[in-house]
Amino acid sequence: MKRSVRAERVHRVAVAVARLLDGRPMRARSSAAVFVHVPRTSGTSLIEELGFERYSRPGQLTDLFDGRTRWATFDHIPPHALIATRLVAPQYFERAYVFAMVRDPYTWAASMFDVLRQNGTLDDTVGFGAWLAGVQRMHEAERAAHPAPAALAPPEADWMSGRFGNSWNMTWLKRAWPQHTWLEGVRIDHLGRFEERAAAVRAVCEALGVAVPTEAHSRRGVGPGPGELYDAEPGAAALVRALYAEDFDRFGYDPDRVPSERVPSTGGSGG
């Protein structure tokens, strides 16, 4: 019997979650925890609320490995890149409670464009559609050169100013890889949604055995609503669907619906 469109999407979400969790039950009250910080998913605010220590430079890792830090995040550097370069052993992630947040690819792309314009990484003369087309060309070139999307220091694209240099953190932010790229290679114990942030925070706090923060630190921005960006550039939605097709599929978001709410500013240079 053929499933309805809604039933099919629910099924895809269930399959995606099962794949991400690798068939393992969610662990509770772990002594170590890692937040995988996918950009523009309210991660900076969540880090502040829960008091996670941020590690974005190799020299900071001493505190992590000698046990002085229980809860850590590596900013926008994904676990598989840290493991591949042997900066962090896979066993660290295996024994920790690992969680992450994801977001509707349409609003995620709009928010990425907004923050790159705000922090000067992306030239003001580059429009939303041109940026997406540039990201697509860059992804195609980098995948051709590196079969795994983990090029650690790819060359600067000529349509980005490179103001922040080649820091690992900003390299991953500027490349705008699909969100699932951050989640590869490790078990994810809890995958929350930006749109259901309160529920995600409650679930994580319960697993960690801590009280739910009474005051959220999320920030609201003044950027245009996604509908305005997509209406102004008719080809942009198709580019997002092509670039982030797997994110739509794995996380159960509707590629046929462009949300119209205003793009929030989720804090920091990456959010």
Structural class of the helix and strand makeup?
A: alpha/beta
In terms of quaternary structure, the protein is single chain
- Ends: how far apart? 43 Å
Number of helices: 12
Shape: globular
How is this structure best described in words?
The structure is a single chain. By secondary structure, this protein is an alpha/beta fold. 43% of the residues lie in helices and 7% in strands. It contains twelve helices and five strands. The protein has helices at 5-21, 43-50, 61-65, 79-84, 90-95, 105-118, 128-145, 168-175, 197-208, 226-232, 236-243, 245-251, and strands at 33-36, 53-54, 71-73, 97-102, 190-193. It has a five-stranded parallel β-sheet with strand order 2-3-1-4-5, sandwiched between helices. Helix 3 links the parallel strand 2 and strand 3 (71-73). Helix 7 (128-145) packs parallel to helix 11 (236-243). It starts with a helix and ends in a 20-residue tail after the last helix. The relative contact order is 0.21.
Short description:
This protein is an alpha/beta fold and 271 residues long. It has twelve helices and five strands.
Which labels suit this protein?
alpha/beta, five-stranded parallel sheet, globular
Would you spell out the secondary-structure blueprint of this structure?
Blueprint: H1 5-21, E1 33-36, H2 43-50, E2 53-54, H3 61-65, E3 71-73, H4 79-84, H5 90-95, E4 97-102, H6 105-118, H7 128-145, H8 168-175, E5 190-193, H9 197-208, H10 226-232, H11 236-243, H12 245-251
Parallel strand pairs: 1-3, 1-4, 2-3, 4-5
Helix pairs in contact: 7-11
